[in-house]
């Protein structure tokens, strides 16, 4: 299967219609879209470390969640980090496909899997302005906020979580992996007593006790890193003999 054919199949599974209007994803970079795909590296981010690994490992394609190119490139020179990576990938004949907000929204994507990891059932969609990215559901039994935070920390492998306590028992939980600060009001309106995201922000967290919803920040990386497993499963289903590896792109240290 070629790079172009693979991207078309991925679009069937994860449609472009699910992407947010502001997003930029898709076939990011390819010197030879007709090249056969034999080795794929799945990663959350196309970091320089991921590029190094892909080049040294002889990969044909990187499939990422966060777009390699999110903002317009004004110059294609080694002077900026994004264009430097793009040039190196082109020289190595490695293509990049990025599936961003559509992988958040798709069935069994980022947010459905986040619910599975945390034991949230009876899941339905919620969102803001027609962008139904988030998920909301119920725990099997109510629990304290501190106990739920410990569950989150353990399930996601996060070194710590931040929480704002509205003094509500945790029962109906809304989730949105990554940077979900814009969905706090939508989570509250959907009936959640607790909202979990990767990043929410100081002011929303400060206001939480006054607005009646528990808020939990578990880290952008940790709430989305599991998407590489989703990508790997799709790829092996589409190309049974493909060699797939998952690459952990987290470079943040907790000191």
Radius of gyration: 19 Å
Helix/strand/pairing category:
alpha/beta
Tell how many strands the DSSP assignment holds.
Answer: 11
Judging by the overall fold, what is the CATH architecture of the largest domain?
Answer: 3-Layer(aba) Sandwich
- Main sheet: strands, sense, barrel: 6 strands, mixed
Notes on the protein architecture:
The protein is elongated, with a radius of gyration of 19 Å. The longest helix is centred in the middle third of the chain and has 12 residues, at 145-156. α7 (184-189) links the parallel β8 (170-179) and β9. The model has no long low-confidence stretch (mean pLDDT 95). The chain contains ten helices and eleven strands. It has two domains: 3-99 and 225-247, NIF3 (NGG1p interacting factor 3)-like (Udp-n-acetylmuramoylalanyl-d-glutamate--2,6- Diaminopimelate Ligase, Chain: A, domain 1, 3-Layer(aba) Sandwich); 107-217, NIF3 (NGG1p interacting factor 3)-like (Udp-n-acetylmuramoylalanyl-d-glutamate--2,6- Diaminopimelate Ligase, Chain: A, domain 1, 3-Layer(aba) Sandwich). It has a six-stranded mixed beta sheet with strand order 5-6-8-9-10-7. The protein has a five-stranded mixed beta sheet with strand order 1-4-3-2-11, with helices on both faces. The protein is α/β, with parallel strands linked by helices and 255 residues long.
Summarize it.
35% of the residues lie in helices and 26% in strands.
Write the SSE topology.
Elements: H1 3-13, E1 26-29, E2 39-43, H2 48-56, E3 61-64, H3 81-91, E4 95-98, H4 101-105, H5 110-118, E5 121-128, E6 131-143, H6 145-156, E7 162-164, E8 170-179, H7 184-189, E9 194-199, H8 202-211, E10 214-217, H9 220-224, H10 227-238, E11 243-247
Parallel strand pairs: 2-3, 2-11, 3-4, 8-9, 9-10
Antiparallel strand pairs: 1-4, 5-6, 6-8, 7-10
